[in-house]
Amino acid sequence: MPSHNDVKRIGVMVGREQTWPAAFIEEVNRRDAGCIAEFVKIGGTRMNEPTPYTVIVDRISHEIPYYRTYLKNAVLQGTIVVNNPFWWSADDKFFGACLADKLGIAHPKTVALPSHSYVEGVVEESLRNLIYPIPWEEHARVCRGLPCHS
């Protein structure tokens, strides 16, 4: 069996789906082939934050814009994302901040956060990848204290 450091992680981001994600995760983990699968859990994304995943399967970011933000940063860090998050747009502020930082261009510390509210019809299952409560104090420390500016 591979050591813990050699194990590749597959992250799964889903909303309302119940059968496919669990079956996929179970099957990957059952095979014991040097990788594990699990649900992605996020709660605020720092500029160029490393991601623990080699691959992320995205089946929900079309409903939750913050998930696309996280996924774009994951791609920048080298993660392969199935269902390309750049299909939506490549001009958002957070990705620009991450890219500037990655290139060594000075930029204020930035943290992307989930939306306060969502369009009608988004249900709790679609938000199950989010950590609750959001670790506000930790994010404020990254941005060097309060008040943080938008």
Description:
This protein has 150 residues and is of the alpha/beta class. Helices cover 28% and strands 15% of the residues. The chain is built from four helices and six strands; from the N terminus they run βαβββαβαβα. It is globular.
> Number of DSSP strands?
6
Remind me, CATH topology?
Rossmann fold
Broad CATH class: Alpha Beta
Q: How would you sum up the major sheet?
A: 4 strands, parallel
Determine Rg (CA atoms, Å).
16 Å
Going across the major beta sheet, what is the strand order?
A: 2-1-4-5
Q: Level of helix content?
A: 25-40%
Which runs of at least 5 residues are low in confidence (pLDDT < 50)?
A: none
CATH architecture: 3-Layer(aba) Sandwich
Spell the H/E element sequence. Answer: EHEEEHEHEH
Distance between the termini: 47 Å
Question: Percent of residues in beta strands?
Answer: 5-15%
Q: What is the count of helical runs?
A: 4
Task: Summarize the SSE layout with pairings.
Elements: E1 8-13, H1 19-31, E2 35-39, E3 45-46, E4 55-58, H2 65-76, E5 80-82, H3 93-102, E6 111-112, H4 136-142
Parallel strand pairs: 1-2, 1-4, 4-5
Antiparallel strand pairs: 3-6
What are the key terms here?
two-stranded antiparallel ribbon, 4-stranded parallel sheet, globular, alpha/beta, 6 strands, 28% helix
